[in-house]
């Protein structure tokens, strides 16, 4: 009986070790610019605090590249806009975002209700760095129209872009979710069907996800309780209800 009890205890210890091991490791997550810069910093920080044995590898990619990587098995999880080909994937709602035009309040176009993308291609623009998923996405739209973006400068991150726009370096196209109150910028509608994006969480097979990836997916699927970027809820609500062409 004692021998049998020791065998059972050894098996329990082994099982505990396997379960602990399942909650160790690094989870790779691919995401487009809006998700990576507006929502994921706070969400992923909370996840890491709750799971001290897990690490994360976040990579920013265009939505089409995110979907291709997940469907090929190169990454277990991704976040992409639904304009990408999501066939062969399981997907879940994440957030809704839209691209907007930001301008300094003294710009000649700052009081326009909105602009088409083709109209912007004749303007001086401030872009994100060339490896940015959003910048590659916008450059692709320009190429398909047989044109190129007139980029005066490319900056690292939306915050730097906004500061340069505010000082008159040019106009910019950014996800609305990354804008922060207090920039003193005019926000204009980007009048294109592709400007409105529904972001989706992607996995090739929910049932086949490793335990660490499943934990992250469950965390990211929780309903949003805070506005993007940690801005105050009142400030974000005020900004989102402002008519186009007014400062934020």
Automatic annotation (TrEMBL):
Domain LysR substrate-binding: start-end pairs: 21-222
Name of this protein: LysR substrate binding domain protein
Pfam families on file: LysR_substrate (PF03466)
GO biological process: regulation of DNA-templated transcription
Cellular component per GO, a single term: cytosol
Region (Disordered): 222-248
UniProt superkingdom: Bacteria
């Amino acid at each position: 009986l004692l021998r049998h009890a020791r065998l059972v205890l050894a098996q329990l210890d082994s099982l505990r070790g396997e379960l602990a091991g399942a909650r160790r490791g690094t989870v790779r997550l691919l995401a487009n610019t809006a998700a990576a810069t507006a929502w994921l910093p706070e969400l992923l920080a909370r996840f890491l605090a709750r799971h001290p044995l897990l690490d994360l590898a976040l990579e920013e990619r265009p939505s089409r590249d995110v979907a291709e990587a997940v469907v090929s098995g190169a990454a277990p999880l991704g976040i992409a806009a639904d304009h990408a080909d999501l066939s062969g994937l399981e997907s879940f709602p994440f957030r809704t975002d839209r691209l907007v035009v930001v301008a300094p309040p003294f710009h000649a176009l700052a009081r326009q209700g909105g602009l088409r993308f083709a109209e912007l291609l004749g303007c001086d623009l401030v872009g994100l760095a060339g490896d940015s998923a959003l910048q590659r996405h916008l450059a692709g739209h320009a190429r398909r129209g047989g044109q190129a973006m007139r980029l005066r400068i490319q900056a690292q991150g939306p915050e730097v872009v906004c500061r340069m726009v505010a000082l008159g370096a040019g106009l910019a196209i950014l996800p609305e979710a990354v804008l922060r109150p207090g920039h003193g910028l005019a926000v204009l509608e980007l009048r294109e069907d592709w400007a409105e994006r529904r972001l989706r969480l992607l996995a090739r097979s929910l049932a086949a996800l490793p335990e660490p990836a499943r934990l992250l997916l469950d965390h990211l699927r929780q309903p949003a309780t805070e506005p993007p970027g940690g801005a105050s809820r009142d400030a974000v609500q005020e900004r989102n209800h402002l008519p186009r062409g007014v400062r934020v």
